[in-house]
Amino acid sequence: MTSSLSRISSVSVRALLGGISGALTAFDRNPVAYTRVIADAHGSPYIARTYLPRIPRPVAMTPLIHAIHRPDRIRWCHNHPWRRSRFVVVSGGYSETRLLPDRSRVTRRLSVGDVNSFGRDDFHSIDAVDPHTWTVGLVADECQEWGFMVDDVEFVPSDRYFREERETAARELLREAEWIRLLAWIDASARRE
Predict the structure, then answer these.
(1) CB 68 within 8 A of CB 110
(2) Is 4-155 CATH 2.60.120.10?
(3) In sequence order, which residues have a C-beta less than 8 Å from that of residue 93 and are 6 or more positions away?
(4) How far is Cα 64 from Cα 114, in angstroms, rounded to an integer?
């Protein structure tokens, strides 16, 4: 497992800020930054991710700024699409659960100054979020689909997971509608008697 939690060192701060400074310099030449609001299966936003211009080689990473609004609502841990990534908590804080290679879980708290690193095979879930939680980080190239480790053993790509969630919700609504129709029929029958 390539994940780690560490306090940020002055060398790490300089490296991260140097990378972001490089991205902002690139932004002056090519102002292509955008923010994507990410929502859960119910359409409720939980994170706003701002992509800054990619830092060219030798770093070859993309800086991201995250505004984390609330915890994940899905009970399964998820991975990320990047080969590797590293984020520094710059405001607020959060608790997360990590799924370890032996499928055990560990919960930890990240506060201002903590660094959270992810490799391609790391799975986590954000359990609690402080108000005004922001992270700044660098991500490598996307190398895989992201998804959920369902029952801690089966990887389900996010698009399939959310499609199945929507289908399940639709079936539940239909069952509920059938019950409402049945109750209305019973009520109407009782009134006729």
Answers:
(1) no
(2) yes
(3) 109, 110, 111, 112, 114, 129, 130, 133
(4) 16
What is the per-residue pLDDT for 43?
76
Where along the chain do its domains lie? 4-155
Burial track 140-163 (b if 16+ CB lie within 10 A, e otherwise):
beeeeebbbbeeeeebbebeebbe
Residue type, 86: R
Backbone φ, ψ for residue 100 (5° rounding) = -85, 165
Question: What pTM value is reported for the model?
Answer: 0.71
Those residues whose C-beta lies under 8 Å from the C-beta of residue 67, and which sit 6 or more positions away, are 47, 48, 50, 133, 134
pLDDT digits (tens, 9 = 90+) for 130-142: 999 999 999 998 8
Torsions phi, psi for 78 (to 5 deg): -120, 160
